[in-house]
Design brief:
α1 packs across α3 and α5 packs parallel to α6. β4, α5 and β5 form a beta-alpha-beta unit. The strands form three sheets. The chain has a six-stranded parallel sheet with strand order 3-2-1-4-5-6, with helices on both faces. Strands 11-10-9-12-13-14 form a six-stranded parallel sheet. A two-stranded parallel sheet has the order 7-8. It has 16 helices and 14 strands. It is globular. It has 434 residues and is of the alpha/beta class. The structure holds nicotinamide-adenine-dinucleotide (NAD). The site of nicotinamide-adenine-dinucleotide has 26 residues, from α1 and α5.
Length: 434
Amino acid sequence: MNITMIGSGYVGLVSGACFADFGHVVTCVDTDASKIERLLRGEIPIYEPGLDDLVASNVRQKRLFFTTDLAPAVKGADAVFIAVGTPSRRGDGHADLSYVFAAAETIGKALDGYTVIVDKSTVPVGTGDEVERIIREANPKADFSVVSNPEFLREGAAIEDFKRPDRVVLGVEDERARAVMAEIYRPLSLNAPPLVFVNRRTSELIKYAANAFLATKITFINEVADLCEKVGANVQDVARGIGLDGRIGSKFLHAGPGYGGSCFPKDTLALLKTGQDYSAPLRIVETVVAVNDARKRAMARKVIAALDGSVRGKKIALLGLAFKPNTDDMRDAPSLAIVASLVGDGAKVHAYDPEATSQARPLMPEVVFHEDAYAPIEGADALVIVTEWDAFRALDLEKVKSLLKTPIIVDLRNIYGVDEVRKHGIAYVSVGRA
Ligand SMILES: NC(=O)c1ccc[n+]([C@@H]2O[C@H](COP(=O)([O-])OP(=O)(O)OC[C@H]3O[C@@H](n4cnc5c(N)ncnc54)[C@H](O)[C@@H]3O)[C@@H](O)[C@H]2O)c1
């Protein structure tokens, strides 16, 4: 099949490369000319494990192309995927659909022959109807269907998630579109993930309900962690004890500094707005959003408390800035709020992240960035672990102790055992463990 992917970011580039790897011929389009130039030079604009090899091999085999020129890429395509950003709209938290609608209008003008327009961006209920209307208005004679196919990949494990998804959700309104989507995803049949065919509005809502549920799970265990600290219980053991129950499941039960990233914060807010618009408020999600916001500031207070109530003039070493390991994505990373609080209270923050430094630098102008994990620790009053990159899991704790001015580690991801650190004579503060 001939597939065109509009938007070559985390989702568009990974999906495009994976579809090409399945044997489809894919053209990835982006309005960001510098991004496309880098891709044409063989550079990958984002950090995602395995993506460089996947892109290179499919470009070599002439199944994957890049362009800024949308119209020729749309003509002759069997399916055109929209994978542009849907950030929170400034001011009200609604999803900003301007990129989706702009893409729809340009697609409409370029359509030639029956084409399925597939919305892969995360969009509120009813957006498919609006995309259909915009295309119809731009090109009244166009022969097309609009499908919703939300994406569930996780950054850092995106290729594996795309190729071996738990399910593929497809919101279709007609048989022709259903047949095209079944053909596009047919190469997955070896791994046999369920193709969940539903109506378009249901599909749009499934994506938000999934993210809101996962955000709730994280927030739940974070509050349980706070209680554990008060009562002398261990949140990791609680999470294991409840997670082994098949009805609960062990994933997304890791206590930490609160959820962040490119999806959960904006998607929970957008779902709240949809609930309000339709007079069906989602009170649990409202609470989740409020609790998570407060948590990021609470993490900075945890660091300040570990330093006897003041960080003024003190040097703090931060390991990990990206919102999670194996990505360079800084969107809504908890590190942003933590750094802002610490700097606001007079701390000098030194940091290291294996991949996110270039994204973080403009967002944290006061921070001094380093090239390896030990450099920021030298002479620091405390070490704070914010993102659980593998490279931080086996630090030489004797070396860490000798580099620190005062031997304090605040581990916001619980990557070390309590006794393991304390036996080195280091004061150790973690999340939800006495
Ligand atoms: N990042 C994730 O992990 C993830 C996972 C699942 C779903 N999603 C959803 O997928 C969508 C895309 O997310 P992302 O993280 O890939 O965003 P991104 O910002 O990394 O990429 C979006 C790309 O679209 C391009 N673009 C914008 N308007 C365009 C247009 N009219 N024509 C061509 N290109 C255009 C931008 O230049 C950018 O490169 C969002 O709705 C997001 O919520 C993201």
